[in-house]
Design brief:
The protein has a three-stranded antiparallel sheet. It is built from six helices and three strands; from the N terminus they run ααααβααββ. The longest helix is centred in the middle third of the chain and has 13 residues, at 48-60. The chain has helices at residues 10-14, 25-30, 33-40, 48-60, 67-73, 80-89; strands spanning 64-66, 93-95, 106-109. Helix content is 44%, strand content 9%. The chain is globular.
Length: 111
């Protein structure tokens, strides 16, 4: 749930008089990769594109996918399993308990 709602009139933002609030376009444009990485807890050596693709794959399939499917989604990564491991450490995803660790292990979003 949003904790802040920007009630500034849209015309004020377009005219350049809008303050740089958390939801303003200027804030979003100024958000650096390092700030984004810190906010989601992902290490510097993990491409944000790979994180996004894993999350999108999970979202597109009911928030669960087999490990092998996720690795296939990011097969252009130097080490796809390193991406998965970093996302587990950042508590973005987890393995479903009680399943053997293999390519059919179920990976799910952490909510």
């Amino acid at each position: 749930m949003a904790t802040y709602i920007d009630t500034t009139h849209a015309s004020a933002c377009k005219s350049g008089t809008c303050a740089d609030t958390e939801l303003s376009p200027n804030f979003l444009e100024s958000l650096s990769k390092s700030k984004l990485r810190r906010s989601i807890g992902v290490a510097e050596n993990v491409a944000l594109d790979h994180v996004y693709r894993v999350l999108r794959a999970l979202d597109d399939h009911g928030e669960r996918r087999e490990l092998g499917d996720l690795v296939d989604e990011i097969d252009d990564a130097a080490s796809p399993m390193h991406v998965i491991e970093a996302m587990i450490e950042a508590e973005l995803i987890q393995f479903r308990p009680g399943h053997a660790f293999d390519t059919t292990a179920i990976v799910e979003r952490v909510r």
